[in-house]
Amino acid sequence: MRKVIKLDGELCSHCAGKIQNRIEKIDGVSKASVNAMTLKFTLDADDAKFQEILGQSVKIFNDIEPDCEVLV
Fold first, then answer.
1. What residues does each domain of the chain span?
2. CA 61, 66, 70, 72 torsion: positive or negative?
3. Residue 36, pLDDT score
4. pLDDT at 3
5. N or C: fewer beta carbons within 10 Å in the chain?
6. What is the pLDDT along the chain (72 residues), one digit of tens a residue?
7. Rounded to the nearest 5°, which phi and psi values hold at 28?
8. 50-56, long-range: CB within 8 Å, 24+ apart, which pairs?
9. Which residues 6+ apart lie within 8 Å of 45 measured at CB?
10. What is the DSSP string of the chain?
11. What count of Cα atoms within 13 Å lies in the side-chain half-sphere of residue 67?
12. Domain 2-71 -> CATH class
């Protein structure tokens, strides 16, 4: 499943890269893209585990950049 999710708040390109790298290491993730300019997060992941992966991704965002909210 592929989903594009809007982000709100502040996000620098350095943090976006760190977030993207950590999310791509989650089991079941095919590809992740975090764009600091457009404030969009694209997640390609296993359908059966998508909600679980999305929850883990939100936690990663909160850990690295608490000023950026994932608008799920």
1. 2-71
2. positive
3. 98
4. 98
5. C
6. 999 999 999 999 999 999 999 999 999 999 999 999 999 999 999 999 999 999 999 999 999 999 999 998
7. 105, -10
8. 50/1, 50/3, 52/28, 53/26, 53/28, 53/29, 54/3, 56/23, 56/26
9. 1, 26, 28, 29, 30, 53, 54
10. -EEEEEEEE---HHHHHHHHHHHHTSTTEEEEEEETTTTEEEEEE-GGGHHHHHHHHHHHHHHH-TTEEE--
11. 7
12. alpha beta
Q: Which residue has the tokens 């929850």?
A: 55
Q: What token pair was written down for 35?
A: 């764009």
Tokens (6 digits) for 21 = 């790298």
